[in-house]
Amino acid sequence: MATPRVAAGVLLVLSALALAGAEDPYLFFEWKVTYGTKTLLGAPQKVILINGEFPGPRINCSSNNNIVVNVFNQLDQPLLFTWNGMQHRKNTWMDGLPGTQCPIAPNTNFTYKWQPKDQIGSFFYFPSVGMQRAAGGYGAITVVSRLLIPVPFDQPPPESDHVVLVGDWFTKDHEVMARHLDAGRSIGRPEGVVINGMGGKDLAAAPMFTFEAGKAYRFRVCNTGIKASLNFRIQGHDMKLVEMDGSHTVQDMYDSLDVHVGHCFSVLVDADQKPGDYYLVASTRFIHDARSASAIIRYAGSNTPPSPNVAEPPAGWAWSLNQWRSFRWNLTASAARPNPQGSYHYGQINITRTIKLLVSRGHIDGKLRYGFNGVSHRDADTPLKLAEYFNVTDGVFSYNQMGDAPPAVFGPLHVIPNVITAEFRTFIEIVFENPEKSMDSFHLDGYAFFAVGMGPGKWSPELRKTYNLLDAVSRHTVQVYPRSWSAIMLTFDNAGMWNIRSNVWERHYLGEQLYMSVMSPARSLRDEYNMPDNALRCGKVVGLPLPPPYAPAR
Question: For position 486, what pLDDT does the model report?
Fold first, then answer.
């Protein structure tokens, strides 16, 4: 496997053996977050850099490593990082969203400490405050299996392990975009697509990747954009899908794959074509004024330019829906644990509750808002998790102001902090229904779920007959096509305050999100960690004495 880019922030790796098996290994990073100027689509613009880089440093680790990231905020705005797809078992404190953590003030620092506990796969991080995600500041997280856990790939292993961060890109400044949304205006359509922080003519200046004939290569592809689904393909080469959002998949072959906002997958590609240059292409899907970007893969020693004939992406979303139906969980593969993924028989568990989330759109004082079931979320001055932990929720938020089903008659949207509760360790079905003419994509922090069903029109209980109750892929992000629905199932066994959100960041910013409070009645360290000593305080919890700690695990 190729050595990832070495960041200045990687200071030290401590071996678990050196600690006599007391803890898993530690990886330390130090990040200085600044603004910089980059020319991505022909015009210079302000972007968010980490240690002078965009994209930011790759976090390359193994399952259960302890990741310590000391973030120095040298922006002129508050800052948080969230770790898209990391489950943070028992550790909602490190999720890095305004509902769980006070922001890092300008010219201060904060140290995150988290584990990819029992996880493997391809993920990414990004800044979560306001519209900062539109300015960059994102980077890859790659989690490999521990040495004793077999990886279900053909031998020999891939020659190199490459990250491909693709996303739509806007040339508007992220603060200008926020002001447009605050004024009731749209951010419009993206001006282009970037691949690993490069766009336009810069992508053709030099090859991004090199192939050696006869070798195999792994590509970890993530859609780090804010609005558009993308189609990913490599000219003249088929791709073997092997992993998706942290799960090993059945290894089918594809000539192109749709990757939706917030979603990641891994493919293996054989360098089995005539030596030459080939295009690696990402094109927008389902929007007018389609945009595309092409990087170059060069076979070693080649001086043959790529053919100008590049296949167009498929048309329409019916093709994309059918492709989703082809994805299957690899039931015999071991992921982060020795036991096979398929040993968890989710289809045999009784559903205890169904939550139907209908995307809601309306205007408040003439300004556009989004939400679920008639409730549009707004962040509170005191992070919701801190208010809950210190028992000072009065005046901050009230639980369960949104029902489990859309109201029979919609009135004006209610703009409030939207927090609902889930009973600890219950198995719940969540249905997302998107009545809009455009794509949506949803993410659930703290969990992986089974995306069991998807289809056009409105959802009804009879559609459960179409669910995949055997080998749906366990993942953290699911797309919902225009005027369509998607259904997921999961056990809420990770105590904390967890964000359910649209990955379409314009909608997220305008309220299409909520928080799920999952509390263990035992108040035990077996189920959740106490607030860490370095936790930042703001709002109503400043100066308050700590509540009684959780009981030791038994």
Answer: 98
Tokens of 299: 């076979």
Domain limit, last residue, from 309, 326, 357? 309
**Token representation of residue 198:** 């490069």
Alpha helices, DSSP H only, in 493-545?
Answer: 505-509
Torsion angles phi and psi, residue 348, rounded to 5: -100, 5
Task: Give the DSSP letter string of 401-469.
Answer: -S-SS--SS--SPEEE--EEEEETT-EEEEEEEE-SSS-EEEEETT--EEEEEEEES---GGGGGG---
Q: Are residues 399 and 283 in the same domain?
A: no
Give the pLDDT of residue 22.
62
* Separation CA 415–CA 76 (nearest Å): 28
State the residue for tokens 């922006």: 75
Residue 439 and residue 392 share a domain: yes
Give me the pLDDT at residue 19, please.
37
Output phi, psi for 269, to 5 deg: -125, 125
**340 near 334, Cβ under 8 Å?**
yes
259 forms bridges with which residues in the sheet?
230
Q: Which two tokens stand for residue 340?
A: 């096979």
Q: Which of 446, 450, 442, 445 is nearest to 473 (CA)?
A: 450
Q: Looking at residues 335-348, what average pLDDT do you find?
A: 83
The structure tokens listed for 406 are 């859309």
Instruction: For strands 247-248 and 239-244, give the pairing.
Output: antiparallel
- CA–CA dist 58, 465 (Å, integer): 42
Q: How far apart are CA 54 and CA 12, in angstroms?
A: 23
State which residues form the domain around 499: 344-516
35-66 per-position pLDDT tens digit: 999 999 988 999 999 999 999 999 999 999 99
Helix (H, G, I), strand (E, B) or coil at 37: strand
DSSP 106-122: TTEEEEEEE--TT--EE
Give 120-170 pLDDT, tens digit per residue.
Answer: 999 999 999 999 999 999 999 999 999 888 888 877 789 999 999 999 999
> Which CATH number fits the domain that encloses residue 198?
2.60.40.420
